[in-house]
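User: Structure please.
Assistant: Input sequence and predicted structure:
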Amino acid sequence: MTELSPRRRLLILAICCCSLLLVSMDVTIVNVALPAIRGDLNTSVSGLQWVMDAYTLVLAALLILSGSTADRFGRRRTFQLGLAIFTLGSLLCSLSPNLQALVGFRIMQAVGGSMLNPVAMSIITNVFTDPRERGRAIGTWGAVIGVSFGLGPVVGGLLTEHVSWRATFWINVPIGIAAFILAALFVPESRGDGARRFDPLGQVLVIVVLIGVTYATIEAPRRGWSSVSIWGLMIVAAAALAAFIPHELRRRDPLIQLRFFRNLPFAGATLMAVLAFGGFGGFMLINSLYLQEVRGFSPVSAGLSTLPIAVLTLILAPVSGRLVGTRGPRISFAIAGITMSAAGVGLTRLTPHTSFWWLMICYILFGTGFGLMNAPITYAAVSGMPRAQAGVAAAIASTSRQTGSALGVAVLGSMVSTSLVAVHPGDFTAASHVAWWTVAGIYAAFFVVGITVSSPWARSRPNRSAHLFAADEQPRANAQASV
């Protein structure tokens, strides 16, 4: 690839961040619209869980495949295809006549979205070859993740109340079209060296694990935890996981390179992403229902109530990116874990008449942590990974976020649904307390893992997986040279 000017590199970064804004904001922008969707399409809480998880599950399941596909067939080409599918899926979501159609078109959105984030990160990694510039670009990327998640509820509230819940999908269309055109004009084509072969069995097993666990978790409150079908799904998911690990270890070109996880910072960042976004996904679902269905807030009021999260994310995400670049990720990890855990504890005191100012304190704490956590997660996940497999490495990091979000919506939503039936019939606020305690525990675990993986001992081992890959890729390179 020819040397690009600094202005061109920044423009490419902006185009890639546009795709990130689309995919990430789509997760949270729909949250505020959920009560309106529930009323318009006459669905249950489990139906709303599927509106969220149909998107995040498919996104998580296909991210790694999309990353390796882009490395093989071309990153810009894959990126543009993803933009086209995502934009069309968004338009169709806005036209959905019923819940089944909406869930189906959310799946279509996710198929396109899976081709955006890991591919965009791969483009960034290959465009910014200087380590210092790459670090700043990754920091910006992590900041945009935080900004997009923070802005979603505010934008979603405004669109839902003043236009329609369908407008939360319309907004993606002009952004997607603009990003498609700009990518064609300014993003250079690139491919990975020695791109990996497809792993269809591994892909199927991943889908079975994710869908089995999530479907069982969402449907268990309705069907009963002792249901034969629920236990059957769990057993199938466990069997698929048991088959997946040895299958991947045997393959020369696995779907998920398990040796990445010998890199302690990367493994820790993956776990922290699951924890962080699991807590966030559950927070957004339960908080939106509480504000609108218990407190009677309008969509705009509910979105504006979470404005402290958006504002603090806007302010602190870039600060965290710079802090990670100069002092490392440990400070951001520590503050994020403490403040978000404290927010979870604070929300366990919710009643139908909780003071608005108490809510604001909890949102400020949560927003502080959320604004700080994304840049260090991204930095820890990507740093030390081999550039030749940038698409796959970035996809694993993105998959962990989406998997966490899907599991958070499923697990915390099911906790509330079960409590509503068995412990606090008809009292949503009291039923939500078990979920808020779980949120507090999730971020306490985030704090412990973050302090561990950012310790001097863990930082002394960042290149272990890169060394293993270098050893693996040399025979491949020699073979290709002899052809």
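Residues 291 and 317 are 26 Å apart (CA to CA).
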